[in-house]
Amino acid sequence: MIVVPALLLIVLLGGKGAPRTEAYQVRKEISFNWIRDSKDVIRNQTAVLLRRDGYDADRLQVRTDDGYLLTVYRMLPKKSRLGVVLMHHGIRQSSDMWMYLGPKRSLAYQLYEAGYDVWFSNSRASPESDGHERLDRDSDHYWDFSFHEIGTEDLAAVIDYVLAATGRKTLHFVGYSEAGSAVLALLSELPGYNEKLSSVELMAPPAFMQYGQFAWIARMVQPIRALFPWSVYYTRDALPTQICTLFRNECCLLFGQMSDRGTDNGTRTERSPGSSSPAGRAGCFDLEDVSLKQLEHYRQIIASARFQQFDYGYAANLHRYKQKTPPDYCLWDVTARVALHYGNKDKTVDWRGVELLGRRLPKVSELQKILYKGYNHRDFYRNPKAQATVYANILKSIKRHASVQ
């Protein structure tokens, strides 16, 4: 294992010898490496799939306080609704993931047929969102965000928009994977939003990830990352891009398992946006519709075994957080009703990490924990058996808390 970090260092330096280290300048613009090709992405894929499955939807736009233009869909209600449900996707996905299982089986359709007003949100990373009012989508600055901003900016803006549009005081939130990290960051940092959520249903939520299969590589990269300021670490063609070119299998493990890109599961190939990845690259590391800062934030919480804010380095942390290390998210401020749905075969979000999350949440949150035997990370939206297990439990939970709306 000593050889691997040495090779990583050689790749980063490009054979030119050790660079001269410079003090991190807080005023310096952070630069990230984005190489993407989105010209073939269908920007209203969710609406296409809804129409194909026999449903109509409005495509709406929500502006965040920092200028991102998010796409939100609302399934057109046919009658008086029982309550509002907002559904949010995982990393490297968009709202079309909720149509994966098609009519009758998909959770979104079950909620709609049960009488709920169903909305879908798309983060700033989603190929279905409309970019930024000033920043070009291919620019470095556009992609300067992690799940923290997706929670505190994107979800906050969408929740406020949906409540205003429906005239409701509260809504139910359903999130998969990264949506869990984002909403926990929101409820921790802006605890007033706890009062706006009747219930929070989280499927495979990443928070404490030190038990998963990626722990070893996340820790292996840490000494290399600590040697360089952000301006060097994320310059074009530097780490992690070059490392992932050399150690492609390891990067597939670390970055590829949290999406469903390139799956060969029957109809999904036709139903998935951005499925133009070359053959043989299924699930592997690429830079389409993902911020490297998102990936780095997850690597940090894996390596640190803490659910904490982004680590910018010693000097920048002092400037931002008034302390040397990033603070933990204040999970004791999460007072909304939370249900955790997780699988014992999930190698990305290990069941032990979810149970640790449950212990860190306050008792006032009326926490529910439901373990699904045999479920892996993607089964929560891809496995047809989820209809009778996971989705049935979510429907019961939402119905139980519907009266508070």
Automatic annotation (TrEMBL):
Q: One biological process GO term for this chain?
A: lipid catabolic process
Pfam family name, one: Abhydrolase_1
Q: Which InterPro entries match?
A: AB_hydrolase_1 (IPR000073), AB_hydrolase_fold (IPR029058), Lipase_euk (IPR025483)
Low complexity bias (residue ranges): 272-282
Tell me the ranges covered by the AB hydrolase-1 domain, including all copies.
Answer: 84-380
Give the annotated active site.
177 (nucleophile), 346 (charge relay system), 377 (charge relay system)
Query: What domain of life does the UniProt record list for this protein's source?
Result: Eukaryota
Region entry Disordered: which residue ranges? 263-282
Q: Which GO terms describe its molecular function?
A: lipase activity
SUPFAM superfamilies recorded = alpha/beta-Hydrolases (SSF53474)
Signal peptide range equals 1-23
The UniProt keywords, alphabetically, are:
Glycoprotein, Hydrolase, Lipid degradation, Lipid metabolism, Signal
- Entry's family note: Belongs to the AB hydrolase superfamily. Lipase family.
What this protein is called in its record is Lipase
Q: Supply the source organism for this entry.
A: Anopheles gambiae (African malaria mosquito)
